[in-house]
Design goal:
Double-stranded beta-helix; eight-stranded mixed β-sheet; alpha+beta; three-stranded antiparallel β-sheet; 305 residues; binds succinic acid
């Protein structure tokens, strides 16, 4: 069966059928999927059966894989494949239990930001026949478009600082997370970085709102007070109902999303007795940006492809 991309009814999300992700991906299919990620933001490939090595091989076709700074809960011998799970066996957690459980964009705290996350659902909790642990998204193309003209003009050309420690400490302070504080060495490995508040998306060529509640701490060109007000406004604006989409998981789903054009939230509505087990690769946006964060000239070719 040839690959078939079926768009959802909302502003985000499409289902990709007819593609076995355990098999090598042709260059043509890869190019189609990259365009689809820009257009739909979130892609779901149902009914997959993957080893960790196959998940890694598929993910690294999209760019360089990140090894998470937590440097734990990794597939044995494969640090690029991280385990997200609430399962505890013989007193030992099998994965990071509370990954992504509030609104954020992965790796906005890096100089080299994230392109896509690739998650493989191995165990998905259900209650009363309904899946739990949805992954929710908001569309940052639409959030930019929906900004009042005054905000578009005021924030054009400005930058925001993003700090890995913001989300980490929020989880410890507000969500009862048992993750330990970051060590000095971990903090030094992830110093705060700046990115444009409005980024030109390298696939669509359109502006997106690139400031997320998980990591953005300050708009650099404003006073602290102005920045606090502006970020509070942006964080409320980007979560409007019309920008939202929720993925409902089934075992065997591979879920992939564009971190530049969306923000996401892992819904923590399941109990410790309701096991969830997901394997995740995080792909850096190396195909779109140089190491110093400047866009590659080849982005324009993708936009017009
Ligand atoms: C993540 O933020 O990458 C985790 C999403 C999820 O577990 O649903």
């Amino acid at each position: 069966m040839p690959m078939h991309i079926i768009p959802g009814t909302g502003s985000l999300g499409a289902r990709v059928e007819g593609l076995d992700l355990s098999q090598p991906l042709s260059d043509e299919t890869l190019a189609e999927l990259i365009q689809a990620l820009g257009r739909h933001g979130v892609l779901k490939y149902p009914k997959q059966k993957l080893t960790a090595a196959q998940l890694k091989a598929f993910s690294e076709r999209f760019g360089e894989l990140e090894v998470n700074v937590a440097n734990a809960y990794q597939e044995p011998g494969m640090p690029e494949v991280m385990i997200l799970s609430n399962i505890v066996e013989n007193g030992k957690p099998l994965g990071l239990a509370d990954a992504g459980q509030d609104w954020h964009t992965d790796m906005s705290y890096n100089r080299m930001i994230a392109f896509t996350n690739v998650l493989y659902g191995v165990q998905i909790p259900h209650r009363d026949g309904k899946p739990l642990g949805n992954t929710e998204f908001c569309n940052m193309h639409a959030a930019y478009e929906g900004l009042p003209e005054m905000w578009k003009q005021r924030l054009e050309g400005m930058t925001a600082t993003h700090d890995f420690n913001k989300f980490w400490e929020m989880m410890r302070r507000e969500k009862g997370s048992t993750r330990p504080p970051l060590t000095e060495a971990q903090r030094a490995a992830k110093p705060p970085v700046s990115h444009p508040v409005f980024m030109v998306h390298p696939i669509t060529g359109k502006r997106v709102l690139y400031a997320n509640p998980g990591y953005a701490i300050r708009i650099n060109e404003m006073s602290q007070e102005e920045s606090d007000d502006a970020l509070a406004f942006l964080f409320a604006h980007q979560l409007k109902a019309e920008y939202r989409y929720a993925n409902l998981w089934e075992v065997g789903d591979v879920l992939m999303w564009d971190n530049m054009g969306t923000i996401h939230n892992a819904v923590a509505d399941y109990l410790p007795s309701e096991p969830r087990y997901i394997k995740r690769c995080q792909v850096a946006a190396t195909r779109f940006f140089h190491a110093d964060g400047t866009p590659r000239a080849s982005n324009q070719a993708l936009v017009s492809a």
